[in-house]
């Protein structure tokens, strides 16, 4: 691999080097400066984006080159690491430092981690992909990151051998130091960085990884690297970024997506408001650019705009003036048709007709907002050479770079994407047509000839935030004469987020529409799971745990319904349907034990309140989860006291982060099942801020008890998997307590009595 | 007008009705205070005005004339503020971190007013929204700061306890030589097993509300 560094071999700017094998790029002194690397630092990458060599050859004053340096060992014995994955609270920066640091033998606390810029070499996931999503970051790059650390450690050993005049085999390391036991001498990594600069990266074939039994940091509750900055206001998010000469912008979006500006009644007045620089018509919005964002926002709100319907050739989803979520839910419930098969086993129709008892029920979910606390923003700045820099929240820099380039009429290498910390994401920061502020920011920066930072106010955000899809699922379950489920049919009337974002259906069904109703582990011999597609007028999005966020609610609640009809205990029934499945049986036992033993209730708690518990399971993103929730009814509303969750991601990197993520996912799960719902009336969202779109407040939070089970199975995800079992566990508890089946979210739509 | 922020006087040229939040962020370049909703709903913009917790997004500039504004940028200059930050780090509270400036300032205001707040005081004061769900970690940090009994890991009503996790001592030993280990984190606290029933989690307080 080292030969890749030889600039003579680097000619094709589109070539892509194997992402798995690290290379030493320190020798390219010219690159060090552009990498922002310290002088004398050892810089390790996975390859070299070859635009580099060409740029250097072509220009006396080359444009800044993006060096694919993942790892830089600095003379001061600290490590700078460029993470392919965005930090949005899920702890991935720390996890990456733990994994690389483990093999490098360097304390993760000495790592400085930043988000890597766009670049093919950073596309380290299978298939040359790079997104921060799908709970994939750690599980898909665990080996790669270990190899990176191990390779760098070998180079440091080699450099130390040279320096000390001994064989590398006589050397060992302790965190941050190379030791020579024979002579008692040692050298800090930082002292060796310079000496390692000219060494070739070891042949991947001879790189040995540590025995997991000797791990010092992986598997331990290593402290997160970003805590102090985040507790003192020093952490920088996109909304905080600024560049010299920057103007601020705010928009007034068309009330419905697809409308364009017909006229502005008071444009001159608004343009004359204090601080206003200029007013701009930009497609489905009017923007105000000002010296201060407050001025821009106030002026944008003052605009009296007449909007017009789009022409026929609009490529965005047009929101009709009469759209209402209630009517749409009705339509979904009454949509005729058998749907398209997604999962078939046996003969569900025959088994249902032969069943002793048939249970039928229709469930529905709601649209929900991401509602991340940081409103979206984009800072666009054109450089004198025509290149464009953007600071914006994003979960996929290369995808954004490609779209920005297309939009701005530039080559991708002329677009530099900066990815600051995300102030929450939950799926909000993918490319969403009409749902990202960057096209507007680019237009405005171009129009005013100065850098522009555009912030969407919370109100404008809630008007364009793409939504988690709504679905109606029609279930039919067949029970045998002992009350055991033997047949299941589920037809989900919905549109999946992936097909929704693409705005077209593909030949294959959208997995993200039905995940969580499909691929359930329960042994129900005859089943048919299908999707009946109905296009949504709203824009759609991924939302933490995607299809599972609602589909496990449907399935696990209906399973309880079948259990009740058949006179089965829901916990015992799950155990029976998972007979022979060691992993899930263990998980069920684990969550039951965590909660002090399964008891459904209703029962009277120590404080005199009537309570009950519900249970549910989910298998999202390669991880298995089981949750038990305990509820009571307070003034007609559901109070969730405790959530016990057992989670088996196979193996883990940081138990403290796993526990924090379970807490986080439980919060969002509770918020969804208890409170959240995006309501549209007359083509407009009823809520434009948190006043009418409540998210879970502190006084509705439950205690959360976590049991991590490391079964040793293939590593699964952590950010999303703890969510999907929570809503059905709560709803099943409410049904147990009240005797009333809950078939829709949020529960705040209903008033309950404890039975 | 003249604005007192973190003990320093600033001359700002802004309209009387410009929210303090935007004066801080755009006029003074102090971006630690966050914009979340603009409606005093979320609390991300919380600052102290003469020691009182205040949502700066709906606080007009002229209303703070002659008053002392304290922002997150100065939190560690205050002895109590330093303790709050230390507790936030010790309990590994933040996730995305966006709301945490406001959470820390809310905790600071509470502890300045009452050195040993009760669980009820904590619940009444810590009302800012957090989309990441750090509520239990915040509760644990405040419980610690207030010197209250460790109820962050209060036993569930069912009387269960999770004795599976390592003790603080074993974790510390396992990673000896590494400075990067969570000590007294929510993770560890949650594994200390059964605690009393008094002042359970945040949820229970709601019932009496």
Automatic annotation (TrEMBL), chain A:
PROSITE patterns: TAT (PS51318). Residues 232-311 form the Aldehyde oxidase/xanthine dehydrogenase a/b hammerhead domain. InterPro entries: Ald_Oxase/Xan_DH_a/b, AldOxase/xan_DH_MoCoBD1, AldOxase/xan_DH_MoCoBD2, AldOxase/xan_DH_Mopterin-bd_sf, N-heterocyclic_Hydroxylase, OxRdtase_Mopterin-bd_su_IorB, TAT_signal. Signal peptide: none annotated. This is Molybdopterin cofactor-binding domain-containing protein. The lineage of its organism: Bacteria, Pseudomonadati, Pseudomonadota, Alphaproteobacteria, Sphingomonadales.
From TrEMBL, chain B:
Keywords: 2Fe-2S, Iron, Iron-sulfur, Metal-binding, Oxidoreductase. The keyword Iron applies. It comes from the Bacteria. Residues 1-75 form the 2Fe-2S ferredoxin-type domain. Signal peptide: none annotated. The keyword DNA-binding does not apply. This is (2Fe-2S)-binding protein.
């Amino acid at each position: 691999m080292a030969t890749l560094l030889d600039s003579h071999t680097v000619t094709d700017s589109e070539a892509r080097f194997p992402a798995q094998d690290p290379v030493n790029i320190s020798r390219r002194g010219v690159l060090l400066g552009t990498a922002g690397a310290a002088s004398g630092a050892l810089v390790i990458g996975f390859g070299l984006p070859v635009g580099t060599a060409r740029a250097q050859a072509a220009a006396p004053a080359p444009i800044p080159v993006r060096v694919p340096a993942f790892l830089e060992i600095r003379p001061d014995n600290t490590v700078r690491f460029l993470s392919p994955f965005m930090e949005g609270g899920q702890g991935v920066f720390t996890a990456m430092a733990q994994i690389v640091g483990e093999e490098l033998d360097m304390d993760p606390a000495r790592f400085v981690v930043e988000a890597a810029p766009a670049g093919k070499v950073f596309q380290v996931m299978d298939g040359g992909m790079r997104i921060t999503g799908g709970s994939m970051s750690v599980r898909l790059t665990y080996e790669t990151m270990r190899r990176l650390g191990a390779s760098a450690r070998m180079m440091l050993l080699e450099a130390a051998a040279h320096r000390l005049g001994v064989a590398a085999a006589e050397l060992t390391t302790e965190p941050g130091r190379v030791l020579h036991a024979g002579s008692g001498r040692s050298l800090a990594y930082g002292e060796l960085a310079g000496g390692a600069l000219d060494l070739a990266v070891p042949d991947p074939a001879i790189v040995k990884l540590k025995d997991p039994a000797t791990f010092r940091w992986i598997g331990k509750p290593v402290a997160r690297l970003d805590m102090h900055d985040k507790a003192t206001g020093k952490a920088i998010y996109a909304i905080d970024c600024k560049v010299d000469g920057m103007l601020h912008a705010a928009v007034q979006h068309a009330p419905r997506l697809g409308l364009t500006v017909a006229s502005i009644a008071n444009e001159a007045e608004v343009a004359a408001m204090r601080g206003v620089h200029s007013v701009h018509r930009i497609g489905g919005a009017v923007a105000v650019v000002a010296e201060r964002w407050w001025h821009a926002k106030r002026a944008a709100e003052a605009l009296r705009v007449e909007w017009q319907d789009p022409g026929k050739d609009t490529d965005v989803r047009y929101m009709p003036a009469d759209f209402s979520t209630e009517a749409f839910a009705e339509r979904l419930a009454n949509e005729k048709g058998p749907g398209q098969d997604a999962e078939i086993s046996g003969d569900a129709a025959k088994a249902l007709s032969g069943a002793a008892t048939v249970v039928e029920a229709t469930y529905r979910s709601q649209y929900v907002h991401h509602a991340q606390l940081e409103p979206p923003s984009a800072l666009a700045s054109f450089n004198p050479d025509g290149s464009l820099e953007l600071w914006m929240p994003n979960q996929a820099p290369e995808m954004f770079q490609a779209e920005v380039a297309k939009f701005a009429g530039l080559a991708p290498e002329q677009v530099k994407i900066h990815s600051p910390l995300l102030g929450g994401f939950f799926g909000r920061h993918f490319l969403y047509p009409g749902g990202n502020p960057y096209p507007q920011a680019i237009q405005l920066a171009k129009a005013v000839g100065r850098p522009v930072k555009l912030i969407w106010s919370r109100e404008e955000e809630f008007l364009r935030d793409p939504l988690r899809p709504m679905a109606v699922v029609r279930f039919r379950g067949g029970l045998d004469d002992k009350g055991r489920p033997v047949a299941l049919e589920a037809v989900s009337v919905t549109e999946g987020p992936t097909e929704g974002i693409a705005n077209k259906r593909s030949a294959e069904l959208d997995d993200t529409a039905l995940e969580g109703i499909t691929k359930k582990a329960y042994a129900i011999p005859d089943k048919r799971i299908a999707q009946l597609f109905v296009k949504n007028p709203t824009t759609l999005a991924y939302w933490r745990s995607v299809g599972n966020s609602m589909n496990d609610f449907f399935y696990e609640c209906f399973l309880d319904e079948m259990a009740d009809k058949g006179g089965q205990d829901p916990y015992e029934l799950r155990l029976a349907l998972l007979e022979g499945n060691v992993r899930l049986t263990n998980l069920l036992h684990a969550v039951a034990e965590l909660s002090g033993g399964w008891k459904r209730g209703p029962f009277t708690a120590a404080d005199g309140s009537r309570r009950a518990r519900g249970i549910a399971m989910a298998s999202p993103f390669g991880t298995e989860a089981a949750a038990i929730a305990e509820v009571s009814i307070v003034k007609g509303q559901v109070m969730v006291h405790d959530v016990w969750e057992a989670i088996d991601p196979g193996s883990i990197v940081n138990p403290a982060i796993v526990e924090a993520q379970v807490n986080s996912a439980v919060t969002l799960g509770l918020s969804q099942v208890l409170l959240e719902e995006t309501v549209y009336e007359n083509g407009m969202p009823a809520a434009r801020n948190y006043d009418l779109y409540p998210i879970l407040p502190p006084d509705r939070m439950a205690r959360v008890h976590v049991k991590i089970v490391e079964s040793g199975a293939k590593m699964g995800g952590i950010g999303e998997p703890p969510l999907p079992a929570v809503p059905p566990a709560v709803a099943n508890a409410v049904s147990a307590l009240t005797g009333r089946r809950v078939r829709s979210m949020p529960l705040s739509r209903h008033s309950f009595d404890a039975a | 007008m003249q604005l007192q922020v973190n003990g320093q006087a600033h001359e700002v040229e802004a309209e009387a009705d410009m929210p303090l939040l935007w004066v801080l962020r755009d006029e003074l370049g102090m971006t630690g205070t966050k914009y979340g909703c603009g409606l005093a709903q979320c609390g991300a913009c919380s600052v102290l005005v003469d020691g009182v917790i205040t949502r700066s997004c709906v606080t007009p500039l002229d209303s703070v004339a002659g008053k002392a504004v304290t922002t997150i940028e100065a939190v560690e200059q205050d002895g109590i503020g330093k303790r709050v930050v230390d507790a936030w780090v010790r309990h590994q509270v933040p996730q995305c971190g966006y709301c945490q400036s406001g959470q820390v300032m809310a905790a600071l205001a509470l502890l300045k007013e009452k050195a040993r707040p009760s669980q009820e005081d904590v619940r009444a004061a810590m009302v800012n929204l957090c989309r990441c769900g750090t509520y239990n970690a915040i509760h644990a940090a405040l419980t610690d700061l207030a010197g209250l009994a460790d109820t962050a890991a209060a036993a569930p009503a069912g009387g269960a306890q999770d004795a599976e996790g390592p003790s603080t001592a074993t974790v510390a030993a396992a990673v000896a030589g590494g400075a990067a280990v969570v000590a007294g984190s929510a993770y560890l606290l949650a594994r200390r097993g059964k605690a009393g029933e008094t002042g359970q989690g945040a949820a229970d307080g709601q019932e009496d509300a």
